[in-house]
What does this fold into?
Amino acid sequence: MSAPTREETVMVGAGSGDLVLTGITRRFGSVQALAGVDLRVRPGEMLTILGPSGSGKTTMLKVVAGFEVPDEGTVQLAGRDVTLAPPARRDIGMVFQNYALFPHMTVAENIAFPLRMRRIGSADIKRKVEEVLRLVELAGYGDRLPRQLSGGQQQRVALARAIVFGPRLLLLDEPFGALDRKLREQMQLEVKRLQRRLGLTALFVTHDQEEALILSDRIAVMNKGNIVQIGTPQEIYTRPVDRFVGDFIGESNLFQARVKQQGVAVIGDRVAIRIPESAALTPNAEIGLLVRPERPRPVPADGRADNVFAGTVDELIYLGESVKYSIRLDAGVALVVRWPFKRAGDALAVGDRVTVGWSADDVHLVAWS
It folds into this structure.
C-alpha cells in the first residue's frame, strides 16, 4: 500500500498515543484475574496479548476499554489517566469477533454512528465515511445492509467504524475468530497493512499463536493473571523464558534435564545433551531443554553434529511444504521434527530408521519449575 494521505493521517494517525498500565489488579471473589500487571503499548505499535483461556487477557482488555474497573492500579492513555473514565470518554475504537454492527442501519450509517455521537457536522461525516470506506476497500458499499455482506466485508465495516473518528487506541478482541481460515489469513494481513499505513496504536487479544506471530510488533504472553514474557515474535519463539511459554508458543520438544557439567545436561539417567557452553549453570541444577522441530536435521553416516541420535519413525504428517515426523530415539525419548518436502519419494515412512542431529546452540534453556 502507498503512504497515507494527509487526510488519512489527520483522521487516524494524529490521535495515536501510548497506553500505560501500572499495577493493574482485578479480582472476582476469590479469583484473581489480574495480578498487578504492568504494560506499555508504544505509539504506532501493534501489541498482542496472547494466552490460554483463563489467563486474564479478556479481563485486561475490558479494563483498558473501561468495561471493568481495576481493584488496584492505573490506566493511562496518551498521558491521561482514564482509570475511572467511562468507555465513551476514552477515545478508543473497538473491533469484536461478532462484528457488533447495527442490523437495521446501512454500512454508511454504521460507520457514521460514532461520528454522530460526537456531534460531527453532516458534511464532515459524509467525507470521513467515504474516506474510510476507500481505506477498507468497500467504496460503493455504503447503502448496503450488514446482512447483504460477507463475513469478511462485515469485519471491514466494523474496522472502519472503529477507526473513522481517529481513536487514540484501537482494541481488537479476537476479531477473526468467526472467519474461515483463508479469509482469516487475508484479514490478518489487511489489518496489519492498515495499522502500519495509518500509524495506529493497537492492542490485539487472541489465543491463536500463529495469528500473534503474524500480526504483532511485540507479544505479551499471559498466564494466571500475569504477563510472563513480552518481546518481539522472534524473541518469544526462539527464546521463551520458561516451560509455559516454550510449550504454548509454537511446537516444541521440551525435556526436563539435570546439569552434568559445563555444556552438558542429562535427560533421565543416561541421555546426555550438549548445550550452549556460554550457559553458566550449577551442576545438578534442574533445567528445561527446548529444541524446536525445525532444528534437528537428518545426519548421514559420515556426518557430525553436537548431538546425534538414531531412532525409528513412529508417525508422519504431511503438511504440504513440509512433513512432520515423530521419531522414537533409541536413547528412549520421543522427538518431533519438521522437514521441508521437496518431491514425492523424499518422505520417510513409518518404521524407517533415521539418524538426526542438531547443534548445542539449537538447544534453548528454560526455567522448568
User: Anything to note?
Assistant: The CA atoms of residues 91 and 100 lie 18 Å apart.
